[in-house]
Amino acid sequence: GPVCTNLGLKPGQRLTVKGKIAPNAKSFVMNLGKDATLLGLHFNPRFDAHGDVNTIVCNSKKVEEWGAEHRETVFPFQKGGTAEITFSVNQNDVTVHLPGHQFTFPNRLNLSVFDYFDTQGDFTLQSLSWE
């Protein structure tokens, strides 16, 4: 999927992602971080992948080292549907806003700026906006 660099997202700002989920989706990924090797938030909704069904798995990655997985069981996504996800950057965490649900994920890498975003998997990006 597309890769964005030099986003410059700082605490108090947010990124809104809109797109379409494939009809036969197994999972998709959105990464936010400094670059591809330092990911402050790896956001991975899994319809049926890696032993998880209808679960959102979040993590962080420092070079090749993954942190502890965080699982959310609220799963507002549907195969073949659309998705709108907003990531709000705070001082110590990122708030993930989903339809009818939100949760926070800690900023484990203590990133002061999120410059990098990418999407992978069974998701087609339609729009990206930040403020």
Describe this structure in words.
The protein has 131 residues and is mainly β. The protein has a single domain (3-130), classed as Jelly Rolls (Sandwich). The protein has strands at residues 3-4, 14-21, 28-35, 38-49, 52-62, 65-66, 70-72, 82-89, 93-98, 101-106, 116-121, 123-130. The strands form 2 sheets. Strands 1, 3, 4, 5, 6, 7 and 11 form a 7-stranded antiparallel beta sheet that branches. A hairpin with a 2-residue loop joins β5 and β6 (65-66). It starts with a strand and ends with a strand. The model has no long low-confidence stretch (mean pLDDT 96).
Q: Which descriptors apply to this entry?
A:
single chain; five-stranded antiparallel beta sheet; mainly beta; 131 residues; seven-stranded antiparallel beta sheet; Jelly Rolls; globular; 12 strands
List the helices and strands and how they pair.
Layout: E1 3-4, E2 14-21, E3 28-35, E4 38-49, E5 52-62, E6 65-66, E7 70-72, E8 82-89, E9 93-98, E10 101-106, E11 116-121, E12 123-130
Antiparallel strand pairs: 1-11, 2-8, 2-12, 3-4, 3-11, 4-5, 5-6, 5-7, 8-9, 9-10
Indicate the CATH topology. Jelly Rolls
Low-confidence stretches: none
Number of strands: 12
Shape descriptor: globular
Q: In which range does the helix fraction lie?
A: under 10%
Counting helices, strands and paired strands, the structural category is mainly beta
CATH architecture identity: Sandwich
Terminus-to-terminus distance: 22 Å
The Cα radius of gyration reads 13 Å
How many strands, what sense, and barrel or not for the largest sheet?
A: 7 strands, antiparallel
